[in-house]
Design brief:
This protein is mainly alpha-helical. The protein is built from 7 helices and 2 strands.
Length: about 250
């Protein structure tokens, strides 16, 4: 799949703030004076985005800063999608194994129940290599020479959920590193950014509007920092538990 990796963009932005803006024009409600007014209709893209947890940035009319805010929002939103996917796979697996009474993201009980349910026909175990884990299923008494019968739908579903869980947890962690690096830089550079925004404003009224947009963006950045760390921590807990199940050292 060919697509732009926001993590690479973050690294480039962090190394040089002088590059040209690559942003596409935003919808009208996110540009101009309307973006800072309190009388905007409630049902806007920005407010809907924030209500469902997505990061939505406002323009500050400094191309390099607008690009960095855009990169942060895109990377965070992708990380959030991976985190939500991970949580969905965990929930599906717990429901599949009838262990939904467990409120945390534990998978140990699910793997145990899968193993016990199929022990008469299969040797079921969790295998882990690096930051990838999967459910290994071997027919009892099989030497790998005869043609094996297809796995039952329940067992294949468990395999698919664990595979998806591993992939999404890994992606959740990978998106967090570059994101936290740039967020840290932005939080330390508020005064510098305020000066850049001031110089970009043509009028005093516009300066007030852009400063308000900058403040709102920084609130979003701080929210992203907190949530991103939470997402990464929970993804790490999934891998830690998988490592404990398999006896693997991370």
């Amino acid at each position: 799949m060919n697509y732009r990796d926001p993590g690479k963009d973050l690294t480039s932005a962090f190394m040089s703030l002088q590059r040209q803006s690559l942003l596409h024009p935003r919808p009208p409600e996110l540009n101009g004076a309307e973006s800072a007014r309190q009388t905007r209709p409630a049902n806007t893209d920005a407010q809907i985005g924030r209500r469902i947890g997505r990061l939505v940035m406002r323009r500050v009319c400094v191309p390099e800063l607008d690009q960095m805010f855009s990169d942060i929002a895109e990377t965070f939103n992708v990380q959030q999608q991976h985190y939500e996917s991970m949580a969905r796979h965990i929930c599906n697996l717990q429901q599949h194994c009838n262990c939904t009474h467990n409120d945390n993201l534990a998978i140990s009980e699910c793997v145990r129940m899968i193993r016990e349910e199929h022990m008469a026909k299969y040797m079921v175990s969790l295998k882990m290599k690096g930051y990838d884990f999967s459910l290994c299923v071997v027919p009892v008494g099989s030497k790998g020479e005869s043609e094996e019968e297809p796995l039952s739908p329940r067992l294949r579903l468990a395999q698919d959920e664990l595979k998806g869980m591993s992939e999404s947890a890994k992606a959740t962690m990978s998106k967090g590193t570059a994101l936290q690096e740039l967020i840290g830089w932005l939080l330390r550079s508020k005064d510098q950014m305020a000066e850049q925004v001031k110089m970009a404003a043509a009028t005093y009224q516009e300066q007030g509007r852009l400063n308000k947009n900058l403040e709102e963006n920084m609130k979003e950045v701080r929210r992203a920092k907190e949530l991103s760390l939470k997402y990464r921590q929970q993804a790490e807990e999934v891998f830690t538990e998988a490592a404990q199940i398999t006896g693997t050292s991370l």
